[in-house]
Design brief:
282 residues, mainly alpha, 2 strands, 69% helix, 1% strand, globular
Length: 282
């Protein structure tokens, strides 16, 4: 079964919660630049799904505050995608014309900032300096990851540099999603590192698909060299490094499953395991 089919089955466990999340994301949203249509475009919501499943596996209920918190994460993610599209000159996002293509780069940057302002507004409603600290540090890491990626284009990074960039650009927001939800639930004996590793695996998978699916907006053509190129040593021959890249992906999914195995048996634990395993699906 494909990634999307398996993922939709997993999401069905959280249908009412995810519907509430969609409502919260757009609540009190003063639309500018037709941003609502951008935000309403089909989205995986994979960060909230990971956090919600983990909380449910720990026996916790999903409160309105938890839903508001994950709306913050999703709004920040949407803002980052708009900024990424400007940087990468993308023309399509979620099957729609990208904001930068529709409105131009200048307004797209402001549009991303506008969405981020709503994330900050919702975060303020939770009245927690701890959550603010987690969120601000995560944004800083995401920016550092993008800066380093842009400054090192057309250079083959070390594997350590690649993993660090993946954590900063992708893993950090996954980890923030779970770390902040644990804090809000008052859970102090569980760590969120597994979520960062899940995010790294998620990015490795996307990097592999960028090559094997021959996407038109190719990372390699844009001078962004990922795991397959690191292993092959040649940007012109990434395919010889694909199998080692897949092994790297398996290594990180294995780390995540080790943490999930510590959870008590439940349908939510099974869903978390399934969520990790489908990272190997196309």
């Amino acid at each position: 079964m494909s990634f999307n089919n398996e993922y939709n089955n997993i999401k069905s466990l959280l249908s009412p919660t995810l519907e509430a999340l969609d409502r919260e994301i757009l609540s009190n949203f003063e639309d500018q630049l037709n941003l609502k249509e951008y935000i309403k475009a089909p989205s995986k919501h994979i960060r909230p799904v990971l956090a919600f499943l983990y909380l449910k596996a720990l026996g916790k209920e999903i409160t309105p505050e938890q839903i508001k918190l994950q709306a913050v994460i999703e709004l920040a993610h949407n803002a980052s995608l708009i900024h990424d599209d400007v940087i990468d000159e993308c023309e399509i996002r979620r099957t729609q014309v990208s904001l930068n293509k529709r409105e131009g780069n200048h307004l797209a940057v402001i549009g991303g900032d506008f969405i981020l302002s709503y994330a900050l507004e919702k975060l303020a409603e939770l009245k927690s300096t701890e959550l603010l600290g987690i969120f601000s540090n995560t944004l800083k890491l995401m920016c550092k990851g993008e800066i380093n990626q842009q400054k090192n284009k057309y250079k083959i990074p070390t594997l350590e540099e690649y993993i660090q960039k993946n954590y900063q650009k992708t893993g950090a927001l996954f980890e923030a999603s779970v770390k902040s939800s644990l804090y809000l639930a008052g859970i102090k004996d569980k760590n969120s590192e597994f979520a960062g590793n899940f995010g790294i695996a998620f990015q490795i998978r996307d990097d592999i698909l960028n090559i094997t699916k021959k996407r038109t907006d190719s990372d390699i053509e844009n001078g962004i060299y990922t795991a397959a190129v690191i292993y092959s040593g040649d940007p012109k021959d990434p395919y010889s490094g694909i199998e080692k890249a897949k092994s790297l992906l398996n290594n990180y999914t294995g780390k995540v499953k080790e943490e999930i195995e510590k959870l008590p048996e439940s349908k939510y634990k099974q869903a978390l395991t399934g969520l990790v395993e489908i990272l190997n699906n196309e």
